[in-house]
Specification:
Blueprint: H1 6-18, H2 27-34, H3 38-54, E1 58-63, E2 69-74, H4 78-92, H5 113-126, E3 134-138, H6 143-153, E4 157-160, E5 171-177, E6 184-190, E7 199-207, H7 211-222, E8 226-236, E9 250-259, E10 264-269, H8 274-280
Length: 281
């Protein structure tokens, strides 16, 4: 790269960091890239760090030593994120979204790039310190959420299939009980799809009793993998704690009331915002 003026270098460095979250970049690499002294690079990084943290974009961690450098950790401002989720909740409360069984039609929302980007950043904020190796989801509606989250955590996505694909080679399959309808179903994952003993973040679009998520957890046990966390776009609040199969998860929204007769729907921000809501009260 040709030598840039400082203003241009700051812009390019910022873009470079944003495109490589959770990646350790050495000062030497920056110095070689921009043909500048390490002292100048350090001053530029200090400016970027101040802006990132001041604007709630994320943290810029500095690691000292010969093998050190900087690592950008994306974050979202919870106050701003709460307002965005409240707007999403208002959209989900539209009566025409109600489907048989008390489910909500969310496919259109999960197709909006801006909303997916925001949701991915929220999940990445919630699990930023979990040392995640991969993100797992089950086909199909959870896939966009998983990829949006992977952009901020910079880890691969593993997709669990409901049907075995011959193009995936040898697979591991398990039976699980769907928490919503109590039916026995099957899910599969290619043996080459996930390294053993990986730390995995599970992402799902909707959780009622948690049967599908529990199935993914059981599947991960076959790979001797560790469940690093569970993120849910919308959870159902109409399930008793005794009926719910898991309790350690992060939700962005919570479906608290569904009246099939009046078609009245109530959706509130999820437990990701618990601390924020308590501070406001």
């Amino acid at each position: 790269m040709k030598k840039l003026k400082r203003s241009a270098r700051l812009v390019e460095m910022t873009q470079y960091l944003l495109a490589r979250p959770h990646t350790l970049i050495s000062l030497t690499a920056f110095a070689d890239r921009y043909q500048s002294a390490k002292s100048s690079i350090s001053e530029d990084l200090a400016i970027i760090k101040e802006v990132f943290e001041g604007e709630g974009i994320g943290d810029l961690h500095t690691l000292a030593g010969a093998a050190g450098g900087v690592r950008f950790i994306p974050r979202c401002d919870k106050e701003a994120a709460l307002e965005k989720v409240k707007e999403m909740c208002r959209q989900l409360e539209q009566p025409d979204r109600l489907l048989p069984g008390g489910y909500l039609y969310m496919t259109d929302l999960l197709g909006q790039p801006a909303l997916l980007q925001e949701a991915g950043q929220m999940f990445a904020t919630a699990f930023a310190d979990r040392e995640i190796d991969a993100i797992m989801t089950v086909e199909t509606k959870g896939i966009p959420l998983a990829y949006a989250t992977s952009l901020y955590l910079n880890v691969p996505v593993v997709i669990v299939r409901r049907d075995h694909k011959v193009t995936e080679g040898s697979v591991v399959s398990i039976n699980y009980v769907s928490g919503s309808n109590k039916r026995i179903q099957t899910m599969s994952l290619a043996r080459r799809g996930l390294r053993e003993q990986s730390r995995v973040l599970i992402i799902d679009d909707f959780m009622k009793a948690g049967g599908t998520v529990q199935g993914m957890i059981d599947l991960l046990h076959e790979f001797r993998a560790v469940v690093a966390g569970v993120g849910v776009f919308v959870e159902s609040g109409e399930v008793d704690n005794e009926e719910r199969l898991l309790h350690d998860y992060v939700s962005l929204a919570r479906l608290t009331e569904v009246d099939l007769k009046t078609r009245h729907i109530t959706v509130q921000p999820g437990n990701f915002f618990k601390e924020t809501k308590e501070e406001q009260q």
